[in-house]
């Protein structure tokens, strides 16, 4: 996020300076083209990083959800096994 803040500040400064004066007079065209290329490259890098972070976050959430549902299914199966065992014990006691 540090890069995002820095890029945002540079962009704000450029926009602020171009609002007060004509950008072509304030910044020579070759410098502005270089800045635009660097800003575009940094924005692409930030978007790629954000996309990777989002993907990892979604994978983690999906894994957690699957784990929770598997644990819940295991607990239900264990409870059913316990109830079947209790019925067998109860029926054995009744038959004696």
| Distance N to C terminus | 73 Å
From the spread of the alpha carbons, the general shape counts as rod-shaped
Task: Summarize model confidence as the mean pLDDT.
Answer: 76
Q: How would a crystallographer describe the biggest sheet?
A: none
Helix/strand order, N-terminal first: HHH
Ranges with pLDDT <50 over ≥5 residues?
Answer: none
Helical content stands at over 70%
Quickly count the helices.
3
Give the amount of beta strand, in percent.
Answer: under 5%
Query: How many whole angstroms does the radius of gyration measure?
Result: 31 Å
Quaternary state of this entry equals single chain
Q: What's the total number of strands?
A: 0
Tell me the structural class: mainly alpha
Question: What this model shows, in words?
Answer:
There is one protein chain. With 96 residues, the chain is mainly α. It contains 3 helices and no strands. α1 runs antiparallel to α3 (29-95). 0% of the residues are buried.
Task: List the keywords.
single chain; 3 helices; 96 residues
Q: Can you describe this structure in just a few lines?
A:
This protein is mostly helical. The chain has helices spanning 2-20, 23-26, 29-95.
Helices and strands in order:
Layout: H1 2-20, H2 23-26, H3 29-95
Helix pairs in contact: 1-3
